[in-house]
Design a protein that fits this description.
Chain A is about 40% helix and about 15% strand. Chain A is α+β, with helices and mostly antiparallel strands and about 400 residues long. In chain A, strand 11 and strand 12 form a beta hairpin. The chains are: A alpha+beta (about 400), B mainly alpha (about 625).
């Protein structure tokens, strides 16, 4: 591969002497081939891995069909790749110039051949195209027969808000960052953004849909019990449209519950009771937070709207996650931390340290004005206890 | 009027720095474009290096989110607008007049103007680093994140104004090449006898002239939103963020072909030369280029599949996007047809051209998988797309450009680039490129979104990211070998002679480097591959052939004279934009400079009366 013909051998300088050392070494070529095969095998092994957000491991009909479509395309691509790349490499080697070779036959083209290799890909593409279009329509909306759970999703910098207008029994629920759904039930999301573009993506359940201010988008998915080992199960999602400084940290989770588990969550949803001295102290301390965080569960869309207005006109307010059911969540800070006493304290003490760029520290000047949290240790413990008050 | 032009005595001569600043010679302007763009390639490539270092392992803290956002914004903006486009422009400049048998482009001063506007636009955007207010909303800068509520600092003003200026440069250059190709071909060179590179330049120029006005509208609206309180994209005032996406991608998709068609043209020149066989199916290659250019206007919304367009729009753009694979595939088959039965010489330009084809096949195929909307829902905005675009833009455009540099460097300088080092350059870059970008397909399918500065260990993306980062090191070494080869060959390269590759096109019939006037005697062509015809006829007649046998006295050739006005007007226009970032008085001064410059330009004859070439 590295043969340099005498006619083109460069003048000998230090660099060209160096480069001439690599000439005409068949073993370099073989070594490269070995390396390439090894790398290929390694990559294929990695490809089969099923990470937390892997698209190779769908647990519902939407993601499953998307994977099937991709897999078929993938194998068609692999076949085309092997054939075309094979012919290319074959031609480059087979027709290598031999010393003293005559001028090759000066062909200019071949109409039959050219028409053939236009028509074959066109047919292939159209066949795949028709199936793709069928899929687009088939999966645009959940099946008409399905008993659908409707959830409204609002994208915020940098967290997702979930509103169930009727979570069950007519109860309205507002929560954040953890979407709870019953297993084997179609869920239809209505998505809107409160500020900039975001994109809602839970790879194992469904491909993404952008969350756009001024527009309403829809996405549906379902988690199938026969593809989930045990309930409750957690699936991981992440904002996929660049949305500013904390975009990388805008995560969320979908928790698939048994019907009973879901019903229990709906039934118990409500403000935390302050039934110990410490929790009562915490409730008082939480008075510092209610400008942005709701804990009363219901009827906070008005509050969020006025927070938004205040934010846009430069006020020290911003729409923040509803904390009503915080104690029932497994994660904190848009899915960044597991929720427990220690992590919640760490977050309240310095949110910037966990999720750089978020608005909490800059908006709550009455708490962080000095750069440090101005609550006493006992107040901090109290508010954490209040928020995590399980009963 | 005469007093204004009289202020500046007409520059004469070609010597020294002023010779370069006032030059209107297309070959020198090509060099200016090439050198500037190559420096930008090194800068934007280093930005990528910092990002790869940050992403090499999970939870890394080398750079924070703000720095990372600035890096990916400037990396992509620079690579698209200040590297690949001007590198292509460098080839247009150097090759087009030579390959069509002309002495210069149609508007030599406009050509110089295009370069200076490009340089000043590039500098203006990079001044943002000096003032610490760097664009940070991505090269696509989706509204409404770009509004002042969410991006209060001046970074996005630098970005929008810089791109507006670069747009002026691109449109001026494109018009110039359009007119040059249509009007200045030598006798006998009909459209269907033009080298394919000239065809691709023509199609690219048409795309540029039509596409840039669209992004210009978007950018003007963005600047107005940010500076004068309009609400084109400001949702709080009833604006529509999706409008920006349409404007951006109606420009952006033709732009993709603006980036790839010129390298496709380069490859279409190199393959026949090194196979000693005419391009297989010339008309089909040309028409598929035209079809690609035409269809590039009908696929833009595949960048917006996830915006919630509804099934009808998804269907239309899925089908059009899948269909564009056909003319692209046809080009690849014809290139292979060119090799077939040829006498293939694997010199460095040919290696890079073959590298282009083999990597572009991968990029093209992965493109089909996100042409299909439901499949794309899982891939959009993930590293799978990052892999795809780097296969087409690095494996495609940059490999094609490197092939072109190896091919035309001897014509430009009269010296060969080192062949041994060239092969090292190719193989190291080829391996590095695949090691960097191939794993990204998988890390994307494993769920890693783009534009994230950090990721948790628990997602299992660490190993693949480490591979990509190691690949970057190999790639970096590969490019370093290129720089070494370039610098070394400039001084020590073997003398090239006028036709080192036994090439078929006109530029190889004159000396290397070519004289200022290119052709002493304007050639006359009778078919495609005119210089092969000439050489083979001479061979058959048993006569040796030498370069540039002139029957014309070069002293009688009048070439356009150097001029100060292009650089002056370019500076004036840049000052107008700079005023929006500083004080309107600066804009006012810039406006006056540009206005007076225009008057001076119009009163200056193309050639000074007493000048020779």
């Amino acid at each position: 591969m590295f043969e340099v013909r005498d006619s083109l051998k460069p003048q000998v300088g230090p660099l060209t002497r160096f480069s001439s050392r690599i000439r005409s070494g068949g073993h370099y070529y073989r070594r490269f081939a070995k390396f390439a095969i090894l790398a290929g095998v390694l990559l294929l092994l990695l490809a089969c891995s099923t990470g937390k957000q892997s698209t190779w491991d769908p647990v519902g009909p939407v993601a499953e069909r998307q994977l099937l479509l991709f897999n078929v395309l993938l194998w068609v691509m692999v076949a085309v790749f092997i054939i075309v790349e094979g012919v290319l490499v074959y031609a480059a080697i087979r027709y290598r110039r031999r010393p003293g070779q005559e001028l090759p036959n000066q062909t200019h083209g071949n109409m039959t051949l050219e028409i053939t290799w236009t028509i074959i890909p066109t047919i292939l593409i159209m066949a795949l195209g028709i199936w793709s279009v069928i899929t687009i329509y088939e999966f645009d909306e959940p099946p008409a027969s399905a008993d659908i759970l409707h959830v409204n999703v609002t994208g915020h910098q940098w967290w997702f808000e979930f509103e169930y207008e009727d979570a069950g029994g007519g109860k309205r629920i507002v929560t954040a960052n953890e979407l709870r759904v019953p297993v084997d039930r179609a869920v239809r999301l209505t998505l809107e953004s409160d500020d900039v573009l975001h994109s809602f993506w839970i790879p194992k359940l469904a491909g993404k849909i952008d969350v756009v201010p001024t527009r309403t988008n829809h996405l549906w998915f379902q988690a199938d019990s026969d593809k989930i080992d045990s309930l409750p199960a957690t699936f991981y999602g992440q904002c996929a449209e660049f949305c500013g400084i904390a975009h990388a940290l805008m995560k969320f989770r979908v928790r698939v519950l048994s019907q009973e588990g879901y019903d229990a969550w709906v039934r118990n949803y409500g403000p935390p009771p302050a039934n110990t001295e410490q929790a009562k102290q915490g409730q008082r301390v939480f008075g510092n937070c209610v400008m942005c965080h709701s804990i009363d569960g219901e009827n906070d869309s008005q509050a969020q709207a006025s927070r938004k207005q205040a934010f846009l006109s430069g006020g020290a307010l911003v729409p923040a996650p509803n904390l009503t059911d915080l104690r029932t969540r497994e994660s904190l800070a848009a899915g960044l931390l597991d929720l427990n006493k220690e992590t919640l304290k760490r977050w309240v003490r310095n949110p910037e340290d966990v999720k750089p760029g978020n608005y909490m520290k800059s908006r709550a000047a009455h708490l962080y004005g000095t750069g440090e949290l101005s609550l006493s240790d006992s107040d901090l413990d109290a508010v954490v206890a209040y928020l995590l008050n399980l009963q | 009027m005469a007093t204004i032009t009289g202020v500046l005595a007409r520059p004469t001569g070609y010597a020294g720095i002023w010779g370069w600043i006032t030059t209107v010679d297309h070959k020198r302007i090509g060099v200016l474009y090439g050198v500037t763009a190559f420096i930008m390639l090194l800068i934007a490539g280093s930005e990528a290096g910092i990002m790869r270092a940050q992403l090499a392992q999970p939870d890394n803290t080398l750079v924070g989110p703000e720095t990372f956002n600035r890096l990916f914004t400037m990396h992509a903006t620079a690579m698209v607008f200040m590297v690949i486009m001007p590198l292509s422009a460098s080839f247009f400049n150097f090759v087009v007049p030579l390959a069509i048998g002309a002495r210069d482009v149609a508007f030599p001063r406009l050509n110089a103007f295009s370069y200076w506007v490009f340089l000043f636009g590039t500098l203006l955007m990079h001044v943002s680093f000096l003032v610490g207010q760097v664009p940070n909303a991505g090269w696509f800068s989706y509204a409404n994140l770009t509004g002042t509520s969410y991006s209060p600092n001046a970074g996005l003003d630098f970005w929008a104004l810089g791109l507006l200026i670069l747009g002026i440069s691109s449109v001026a250059a494109a018009l110039n090449f359009l007119v040059t190709i249509v009007n200045m071909r030598c006798p006998g060179m009909t459209m269907m006898r033009m080298p394919v590179f000239i065809w691709m330049t023509l199609i690219t120029s048409i795309l540029l002239v039509l596409a840039f006005p669209v992004i210009t509208v978007g950018l003007v609206e963005l600047v107005m939103d940010r500076n004068f309180g309009t609400h084109f994209f400001d949702t709080a005032g009833g604006g529509d963020p999706i409008l920006w996406q349409h404007l951006f991608w109606v420009f952006g998709h033709p732009e993709v072909y603006i980036l790839i068609l010129p390298p496709m043209g380069v490859v279409s020149e190199i393959l026949p030369t090194f196979s000693r066989k005419p391009l297989f199916g010339y008309p089909v290659v040309v028409f598929s280029g035209i079809v690609i250019g035409f269809m590039s206007w009908a696929v833009w919304s595949h960048h917006m599949f996830t915006t919630g367009m509804g099934p009808t729009a998804l269907t239309v753009f899925t089908i059009t996007t899948m269909l564009i694979a056909v003319p692209t595939g046809v080009k690849i088959f014809n290139w292979i047809g060119t090799l077939w039965g040829g006498s293939v010489d694997l010199k460095t330009p040919m290696l890079f051209a073959l590298g282009f084809i083999s990597l572009f096949i991968i990029g093209g195929l992965s493109g089909v998988s996100h042409a299909v909307a439901p499949s794309d829902f899982q891939q959009q905005d993930t590293y799978y797309i990052v892999a795809h675009i780097h296969y087409v833009l690095f494996g495609g455009s940059i490999f094609g450009i490197l092939a072109g540099i190896y091919y035309w460097f001897p014509k430009l300088t009269g010296r060969m680039l080192g062949e041994g080092l060239g092969k090292w350059n190719f193989w190291v870059t080829f391996v590095g490129m695949n090691l960097t970008f191939f794993p990204m397909h998988f890390v994307g399918l494993n769920g890693m979104p783009r534009r994230i500065y950090t990721y948790g260990e628990e997602f299992g993306w660490g190993l693949l990211n480490m591979l990509s980062s190691l690949g970057y090191v190999v790639l970096f070494i590969g490019m370093l070998l290129f720089v070494i080869n370039l610098l070394n060959s400039l001084r020590n390269g073997r003398a090239a002679g006028h036709d080192p590759w036994d090439a078929p096109t006109l530029e190889w019939s004159i000396s290397s480097p070519p004289p200022v006037y290119n052709f002493a005697e304007i050639p006359r062509v009778e078919g495609r591959d005119p210089y092969w015809t000439t050489k083979r006829r001479a061979e058959a007649e048993g006569q040796p052939l030498t370069a540039g046998e002139a029957h014309v006295d070069p002293d009688t050739i009048h070439m356009p004279s150097p001029s100060y006005w292009p650089v002056i007007i370019a500076a004036g226009i840049t000052l107008i934009a700079a005023g929006l970032l500083t004080h309107y008085a600066v804009s006012f001064v810039g406006g006056i400079i540009a206005f007076l410059g225009t008057i001076g330009w119009s009163n200056e004859p193309a050639s000074a009366p007493q000048s020779h070439h």
